[in-house]
Amino acid sequence: MQQVMDMMQGLQEAMAASKVEQERMQEDLTASQARNEELCRTNEELHRGLRNNSGLREADERECFTPPREFSTPFSQSILEAVIPNTFVGPKVTFNGMEDPEAHLTAFHTQMMLVGGSDAVRCKLFMSTLTGMAMDWFISLPDDHITSFAQLSQVFREQYLANRASPPVSYDLFDVKQYQGETLKEYINRFGAQVVKVGTTEEPMIVYAFRKGVCPGPFCESIIRNRPRTFVEIRRRAVEHIATEGEVCEKRTSVAPTRPRAPSCAQPARVNEAATGRKNQES
Questions:
Q1: 220 within a domain of the structure (yes/no)
Q2: Which of 17, 37, 150, 194 has its CA 20 to 30 A from that of 244?
Q3: Could you tell me if residue 258 is inside a domain?
């Protein structure tokens, strides 16, 4: 009987200890749930703050950054697929829509002759020379519109036809006059450049225009007395005159050396002494 009583008491104590342990575990679980809820609230607040900051940053980026407009080229697919070598040096000329289109094409052709390149490469490199309004015009052309560089050149000329300088005529040579103070060398070079620009081969008119434009002077008198037949002869005689003129100018500006003074002949001391003695006797 005593043994049964001891067993029952042991069970009661074990049940009481288990109850205490359960209560402690319940308290721990409640505290853990509270901590989890606190962590969740904190985490949610952090996420909310990050979303707000991200939204502000995106708004700032949208406000400060303007995405580039969609860029398209009017080149055909074969031109677009052409590959430009990495070692290829592109042209160094630019066109913004205000210059002479013929002058730009001439400069572009000149540089491309030095580096070569296929027709498609020329198209792509020509596009790289356009800036400003010219680039705006280029990208406004219809897609798949340009199939060759000849077509691109023609479209380019037609677009900027109003910018073309009036073609020079032979009689423009008579407008080339030697300026006051301009050397003969400077004038003949400027006149020669205009002859090339005009493209005339009428030698009598070229010679006559040069004589009309040159300033009066020794060279003008020489070509009036002995009239040259060609502009090449004028150049040859001008070279001789420039060399002679330089020599004369050098002579005029050079300072001649002064003539040395003749050495004075001092009288012998005994003559001076005799003259001094004579003066003493007279006195």
A1: yes
A2: 194
A3: no
Q: Taking residues 63-77, what's their average pLDDT?
A: 62
Residues 43 and 120 in one domain: no
The domain in which residue 139 lies consists of 77-163
pLDDT band (50, 70, 90) for residue 160: very high
| 211 located within any domain | yes
pLDDT at 104: 93
Structural domain includes residue 9: no
CA-to-CA separations, 89 to 18, 122, 125, in angstroms, rounded? 90, 12, 10
pLDDT of residue 115: 79
Q: Which uninterrupted H or E stretch holds 62?
A: helix 2-64
**pTM (predicted TM-score):** 0.49
Residue 64 has pLDDT above 50, yes or no: no
In three-state form (DSSP H/G/I as H, E/B as E, the rest C), the secondary structure along 103-154 is HHHHHHHHHHHHHCCCHHHHHHHHHHCECHHHHHHHHCCCCCCECCHHHHHH
